[in-house]
Design the sequence.
């Protein structure tokens, strides 16, 4: 992000905080004015990015040196990477010790671009708690949720009653390694470094999101498998009003698939108004009543089973923790006979983490039955 882009981005953040405060104070119209300013700033930022990209491409077409150091780092990395694949020689810029087998770490410039790609692919990881860990296994202790029973009254000179002590539970994690090898053709290696970079970024981002989303949804689906029937908007309101701890409502989201979103998008309240609206502080987010963001994944990622459309309502950030031992790495794999006969080169991507449910009361599962 350039200096000018960062300036607008910081202004958007400050305006967002200002809108939140005004909205909490009940100054709805003033908050709406700020939201409109945020929309204008977002458009301004998008225009600036396109303008600067056009300027960069013009410079490249003319064969001039790139003015941005970060762009040069990206190009250098890809050139070293391709050179390593072709010659087997690792330059000093590419050496990195990961663990026993070593490897080529994705530099910050490319890592940032992969993160941008992941956001476009709707990674669920941003909605849960992420904790960096330095060991392959371990545990965390959490206090169990319990009803808040008040102290009993005590008369003057009376006897104090013994109260129940807090209850705790242990959550164990064990890091699992995930990864795969991309088989790259010789023809692609002879292509431009920019095309190779885009190819790697797209492939890694898609695989990362698919891997993390599957782990998160597997935990959520296994933990919250007792579903509440949803037949109307009133049933969703009942979950929000009676099933979710009021303290968690500011963090509450609704996670569903495309089929579930389509049903939500057609729901209206008793005044014949659609319940889905732009979020009060982020016009790019769709929310129920403008307060509870709706997260949508594909039907293939979160499938409809036996005509049951899943909805997970609650604070995912409190419900699930992602224990991350190692982020993404890229390595070249030794070229075996199978790759040799097909004139291909193997590139390996790897990540290590574990995902666990830590608060089993922070989310409620609902199901809408198709055709009911």
Sequence:
């Amino acid at each position: 992000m350039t200096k000018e882009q960062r300036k607008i981005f910081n202004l958007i953040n400050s305006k967002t905080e200002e809108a939140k405060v005004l909205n909490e104070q009940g100054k709805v119209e003033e908050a709406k004015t700020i939201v409109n300013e945020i929309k204008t700033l977002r458009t301004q930022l998008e225009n600036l990015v396109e303008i600067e990209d056009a300027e960069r491409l013009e410079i490249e077409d003319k064969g001039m040196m790139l003015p941005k150091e970060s762009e040069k780092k990206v190009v250098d990395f890809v050139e070293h990477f391709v050179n390593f694949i072709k010659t087997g020689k690792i330059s000093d810029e590419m050496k990195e010790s990961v663990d026993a087998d070593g490897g080529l770490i994705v530099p910050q410039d490319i890592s940032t671009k992969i993160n941008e790609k992941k956001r476009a692919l709707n990674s669920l990881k941003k909605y849960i708690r992420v904790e960096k860990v330095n060991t392959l296994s371990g545990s965390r202790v959490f206090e169990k949720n319990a009803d808040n029973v008040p102290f009993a009254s005590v008369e003057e000179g009376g006897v104090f009653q013994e109260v129940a002590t807090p209850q705790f539970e242990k959550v164990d994690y064990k890091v699992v390694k995930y990864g795969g090898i991309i088989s790259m053709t010789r023809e692609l290696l002879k292509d431009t470094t920019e095309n190779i970079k885009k190819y790697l970024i797209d492939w890694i981002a898609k695989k990362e999101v698919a891997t993390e989303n599957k782990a998160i949804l597997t935990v959520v689906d296994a933990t919250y498998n007792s579903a509440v029937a949803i037949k109307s908007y009133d049933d969703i309101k009942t979950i929000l009003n009676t099933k979710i701890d009021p303290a968690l409502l500011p963090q509450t989201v609704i996670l569903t698939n495309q089929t579930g979103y389509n049903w939500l998008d057609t729901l209206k309240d008793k005044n014949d108004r659609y319940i889905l609206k732009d979020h009060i502080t982020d016009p790019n987010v769709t929310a129920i009543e403008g307060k509870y963001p709706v997260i949508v994944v594909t039907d293939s990622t979160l499938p409809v089973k036996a005509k049951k459309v899943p909805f997970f309502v609650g604070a995912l950030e409190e419900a699930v923790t992602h224990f991350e031992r190692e982020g993404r790495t890229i390595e070249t794999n030794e070229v075996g006979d199978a790759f040799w006969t097909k004139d291909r080169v193997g590139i390996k991507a790897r990540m290590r983490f574990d995902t666990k449910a830590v608060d089993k009361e922070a989310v409620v599962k609902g199901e809408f039955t198709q055709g009911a």
Q: What stands out?
A: The longest strand covers residues 344-357. The chain has a mean pLDDT of 78. The chain is about 40% helix and 25% strand.
